[in-house]
Amino acid sequence: MIAGAVARLQSYGAASVWHEVIAVPGSFEVPAAISFAIMSDRERYDGYIALGCIVKGATNHHNVISSSVSASLGDIAVQHAVPLGFGIITSDSMELAMERADPNGKDVGGNAAAAVLRMIELYKRFLGFLAVQGAYSMMFSSYATEDLDGLLEHLCEMRGVFGLGRVDKKLLTKILRSMLARCSEIDATISEHINKNWSMDRINLVSLSIMRAGICELLCFSTSESVVINEYVDIASYALEDAEVDFVNAILNKAKTVRFGRDTEVQNLVSDGVALLPKSCKLVVITGVSGSGKSSLAFDTLYAEGQRRYVESLSPYARQFLNLHAKPDVDHIDGLSPAISVSQKHCHKNPRSTVATVTEIHDYLRLMYARIGVPHSPATGKPISRLSASRIAQEVVGLPTGTKLHMLAPITQTRGGEFLKSIAEIRKLGYTRLKIDDTVYDINEIPPLQQDSAHKIYVVVDRIVITQEKSNRIPNSVENALLIGKGIIHVEIVSLPQDCVTQEYQPGQILVFSEHFICPESGFHVGKWSPDYFPSTRSAGHVNIAWAWVEITQ
After folding, report:
1. Are 314 and 322 in contact (CB under 8 A)?
2. Residues 61, 62, 80, 455: which is the catalytic one?
3. Which of 19, 397, 503, 519 could be disulfide-bonded to 524 (CB atoms 3.0-4.6 Å)?
C-alpha cells in the first residue's frame, strides 16, 4: 500500500520519498520506533509519508495511533490519528513539529493549524486540488491498483479492531472495484467544484473529512456500524463551512452505491449473490433476458425495501392506513433512498396524466409549492414577496438615522398619455408634488406629457428624515402611499449620513415594497398564493401562451 502511495507522489513530481513499514508487537514500542524512523537522515528527503498503524490486540485503536504519533510529531498528529490515515510532511515542518513536541512525549496542544499548514507544504508543488484528490484517490486508486488483496486484508483487520464482525470478502471486493471504476468521475468532480481560493488549512480539513467518510463507506454495512466508526474517526463536518460540506458531499456521492446480496429471485442477474448500483448516475437501466429477475430486483427488492423503510419511519397512527411491504429476502441493502414506483400496467388512458398524477404525488407537490415555494416573476425572473403595512413601516424606520427619503406611490410606470384626470384626482387629495421621469415637479407646474411615450409617474406622499422624533409619522405615510399605489410603495433614498453609505444603502437607491404578490417592475400579479395555482388540468397557473391538449393516434 505504501509503495503505491510513494509511486503516486513521485508521478506528481516528488524528487525522492523515503518510506518504511514499522511493525512492532505492542503499543509501548510504537513511539520509539516512529521517532527513530523520523529522525533518521531526514535532511536527505523532500518529504515523508506517515500511514496510520494497526496495532493488533489494542483495546483502543484510535488512542493508540494518536498517542504513538503525537509523541513524535506533537499535536499535528491529532489531525491524522485515523485508521488508514496519511500525511505529507516536509523536512522544515518536521523540525517545527519536533521543536513543539513535549520532551516527555506528551501532546503539547496549542495552535495545530500552523503545523498542519506546513505539513502539507509539499502539496503546493502538485496540482491545486491534490490535497483533496490525494485523500480519496490515494486511498482507493493507488492502494487498490497496487495491492487489492492487501487492502482487503487491511480493511478486514480494521473491522476486527472495531468489533464489527466478519464481512464477505466478495462483497468488499465488489465495493472496491465499483469505487475504482469511478475514480475518473471523482477527479473530474474535484477539478470542477474545488474553490481555488481555499487556504491550505481549509483544504486539509476538507481532505480529512473526505477520507474519514470514505472509511465509513468501505467499512460500514449498517447504521449501527456507522455509529461505532464515527466514535473513532469523528467525521469533521462540524468544522466545515457550508460550501465545503457541499463539496465533500459532491465527491462522496460519486462513490456511494446501493448494495445488497442474496435474493433467490435475482441470482441470474447478479454475480456471487451481490449487486452494486451507483447512486450518482441519473439513470440506471436493468436489462436481461425474460425471467432473469429484472422486475424482482426493481420492484420486489429495491422499491419494496425503500417503501418499507419509509413507512416504518412514520407514526403508528399513520402506518395503519398504509400497506407495509414484506421485507425482501436479502442479507442486507445499504445506501437505499426513499423510492417511488411507476409500474407498467394498463390504466385509464388520459392524455392529461403525468408522472406526478400516476404516482399520486401531485397533490403533495401542490401543497409544497404553495406553502414553502417562493414565487418569481416570469417577466423579470426576480422573487415576488409581500409585506404588511406595519412590516413595511418597520423596514423604513430601520434605515440609518439621518437618512433623507421620499415615499412614492406609483401611478404608472409603463403607459403613455397625458394623465390629466389622474393628476386632477391627486390634486384633490391634497398632494402637491409628483415625480415624473426622475424629476420632481410641483403639481401646478407639470409640463405637457407626450402621449406616445411611456412615463413613470409617482406621487410624493411624504419627504422625511429618519429620526427618533419623526418615526411615529412613518406608518401613516406608508398606509397612504399603499392606498394610492394600489398596494405598492417606492422608498427613494435621497441622501445618507456619510458614515452610513454602504453597499446595502446608497444615495439614489429605490426600495420597493408591496402588500400583494405583485412584481413592482413588470406588474405581474399572482393573486392569492394557494395550491389552486398548480393543477395540471386548469389554466389558473399556466403562463400566458397558446396551449392545447393533443392526443396522437396511430
Report:
1. yes
2. 61
3. 519
